[in-house]
Amino acid sequence: MLLQLHEPGETPGPHEAEGGLAVGIDLGTTNSVVAIARGGEVEVLRDGEGRGLVPSVVFYGEDGQVVVGDSARSQILEAPDHVVSSVKRLMGRGLEDVKALAGTLPYQVEPAAEGGMVRLKVAGRVLTPVEISADILRAVKARAEEALGKGVDKAVVTVPAYFDDAARTATKDAARLAGLDVLRLVNEPTAAALAYGLDNAAEGLYAVYDLGGGTFDVSLLRMEKGVFQVKATGGDAALGGDDIDHAIAEHFLAERAGVLGEQPITAGEAKQALMVGRIAKECLTRQPQGEWMIEVDGKPSRHRLDRAALDALAEPFIARTIAICRGVVEDAGIDVADIHGVVLVGGSTRMPLVRARVAEFFGRPPLADINPDEVVAVGAALQAEALTAGSDTLLLDVTPLSLGIETMGGIVEKVIPRNQPIPVAMAQEFTTYQDGQTAMAIHVVQGEREMVDQCRSLARFVLRGIPPMAAGAARIRVTFTVDADGLLTVAAQETTTGVEQQVAVKPSYGLSEEEMAQMLRDSLEHAREDMERRLLTESVVEARRATLAVKSALAADGDLLSEGERQAIDAAIEGVEQAIAASDRDGVDAAVEGLEAATKGFAEKRMDRGIRQALAGVSVERLGDALGDGPQGD
Amino acid sequence: MNASAAAASVVSCWSCKGPVAGRALFCSVCGAVQGPGAVDHFTRLGLAPGFDIDLGQLERQYFGFQRRLHPDRFAGKSPREKALSQQQATALNEAYETLKDPLKRAAYLLAHRGRPVDLTACGTINDPELLMEQMEKREAIAEAESLDDITRLSAEADAEVLACQCHISAAFNAGDLDAAGHLTLRLKYLAKLAEDARSRKARIARAR
Ligand SMILES: Nc1ncnc2c1ncn2[C@@H]1O[C@H](COP(=O)(O)OP(=O)(O)OP(=O)(O)O)[C@@H](O)[C@H]1O
Ligand SMILES: [Mg+2]
């Protein structure tokens, strides 16, 4: 039994007045989509020709020109060295990761100076995946603004559920660079479930199988009366349609080498071969067979492929997705038969082989009455509206991967296991291993394996100032906190002495704060004003909170004040309101401080009265929405 | 509630600075969300403390509180309100995760009643009888080859888990914390066994 409680603080603020609109963005490996929800009705924002998908492809001209989308994609054949596609696969990744993917990704990589995020050489420029993604987001934002005829400055951006912390942070950074305030990062399968569930009033346990261009995710969710509770999630952040394109391209090149002999191929030719592979794959969804042509060094060759041969090439990848599905079902501790339905998301789920394998594993035909390309953006848009205009639906997501710390011998000690509902905070105690040790290196990793080198390095930092003690005597408490965006923060404290260190986390594959600040300065024409505007908005939000609080207090306990006291407070409120109207941040901050000072005595009188009333036995319930007083009563 | 306890339970709201009940979620005057405070998991979810809980009710309470306190409800609010809502939602998740699992619930209740058991004590079983029993069963599961055999073993293991939970409930109801502690340790091994049986069964079923 829940207490029926009034919620005076729940009235949604005047967001409309506060600048731009809030949209939902699916930033995909292959395609990006932007949508907006108004009154629960969702509209996918399209270009003049009605296309909702923006290919996530960027063309960089010699003259600094940047083109995103269909026109950039058409340049792949003409000017392959100027075009970047599938950059999402590089988000939050280091040079070593990219080497591991070597071959699958025809990029020219700049060996980064000292670890950190990989950098690409494109048309004479050196760019990080964050900057390239920001270019895509800028184009998507521009499309939305054109379609809506209004500024857009807030967004819910989706990420693969299986994205690690570095990739999530990189995505948020990219949005910031594009001038978007990220209301929330939402996992792609969860967004799809939201869109599907609200549309179909679905109830029960559902699986979302999302196979896109570069990533695979599967999530098991319970949907019930507006609650979307993720039970377990799994995936592979580097498994998707791209891999199948690659297998086809390899196959064609091998056929060709069999006839024409081995030939070295350029990065540009590789990009072309991949594109042919993709076209062949997509055609074979509709037709049983076909013939395609590739060209190396000016010499063309023709290649036949039928669906059976495609299936043989694709099978290993699909088998991997099914193995992951099996793991997720086991993690959730449920029986496949308990699953009410399987929702297909992502362009690659159009492949007949995928549908057959999914149907076979889940023992039922998948639900495909939704548009697999747009459903994620639709969910993101619904969530953007929920966050700004308020809503009754609830998304409860989980950590996709375990988070831990390196201990002696390179073994990982898990601090937060996978599939924990977020937000979550968990702590673990560690100790020193040498007498008199005063510092401790902390290495944060993410992944399921036992050894550090098989997990992903997220960050390293050093806790200093540990008082010298015998080995094993110090108690270092390391707390991991994961917020609702799935982003991690780490704090460390020596508990026997209470020494708490301000720890600077150096992200292993991210951008440092300075790099980010520099990029913001470089990329935003109005970086300065933009920053100022953000700070002003923050101050105004705080000032509104403070004035509302005082006004509520006056309404409740105004009788405690003399005429003069009342006038002083009213004047202070007036001061804050004038400062807000004048859009002057320093003025706003000063006025809020003035208000605090002016209400100090009032607050004391109110506390006195509250305590007196409590002593006199007035129900404490009057003093707030009591927690947990339900079943036991007061 | 007596008068001094009532007075002690009144704190100052961080936002409007007026009086608010120590366990309030929101200030009744200005509506600001309050911090999660140090209450036990049962109280936090509005449930009577005890081993026997209605899982349906647990879930309804959890969803109900999350609906009001989850950070998604505070997206446009001030940083302080966002942070408090995150703390509240974190505390709710911890309470829910602990109480929904019989093993964690039993261990938590024992600690709550001042009789903690150490479930992390790595693998060592001090009770020779329990040790023998576990070893035999583990062996039987590892050696099972036919689907029929493993299905039977898995069902047996599940039944033992349930039986043990009933005994734990009886022990708590009788106020016998020693027995409850003992049985909770036993439940840990039985649950592990049931899980092993389930995954072995899945493996055998797949291989067919
Ligand atoms: N008819 C089709 N048959 C087979 N594959 C297709 C078809 N249409 C699209 N695809 C594939 O779907 C993939 C793109 O899907 P989608 O747009 O859902 O990915 P994305 O959202 O950009 O990627 P991700 O979600 O992995 O970041 C590409 O690999 C594309 O080749
Ligand atoms: Mg996608």
What keywords describe this structure?
heterodimer; A: 634 residues; alpha+beta; Nucleotidyltransferase, domain 5; Substrate Binding Domain Of DNAk, Chain A, domain 1; Substrate Binding Domain Of Dnak, Chain:A, Domain 2; five-stranded mixed β-sheet; 38% helix; disordered C terminus; B: 208 residues; mainly alpha; Helix Hairpins; 2 domains; two-stranded antiparallel sheet; 2 strands; 3% strand; elongated; binds adenosine-5'-triphosphate; binds magnesium ion
Commentary on this structure:
The complex is a heterodimer of chains A (634) and B (208). Chain A has 15 helices and 28 strands. By secondary structure, chain A is of the alpha+beta class. In chain A, α6 (241-260) packs antiparallel against α8 (307-331). Chain A has 3 domains: 21-239 and 323-395, 2-Layer Sandwich (Nucleotidyltransferase, domain 5); 403-514, Substrate Binding Domain Of DNAk, Chain A, domain 1 (Sandwich); 527-623, Substrate Binding Domain Of Dnak, Chain:A, Domain 2. In chain A, a hairpin with a 2-residue loop joins β14 (216-224) and β15. In chain A, strands 1, 2, 3, 4, 11 and 12 form a 6-stranded mixed β-sheet that branches. Chain B has 208 residues and is an all-alpha fold. Chain B folds into 2 domains: 3-100, DnaJ domain (Helix Hairpins, Orthogonal Bundle); 128-207, HscB, C-terminal domain (Monooxygenase, Up-down Bundle), CATH 1.20.1280.20. Chain B has helices spanning 3-8, 41-44, 55-69, 79-100, 102-112, 128-143, 147-173, 177-207, and strands spanning 10-12, 19-21. A two-stranded antiparallel sheet of chain B has the order 1-2. In chain B, α6 (128-143) runs parallel beside α8 and α7 (147-173) runs antiparallel to α8. The longest helix of chain B is centred in the last third of the chain and has 31 residues, at 177-207. The termini of chain B are far apart. The complex binds adenosine-5'-triphosphate and magnesium ion (MG).
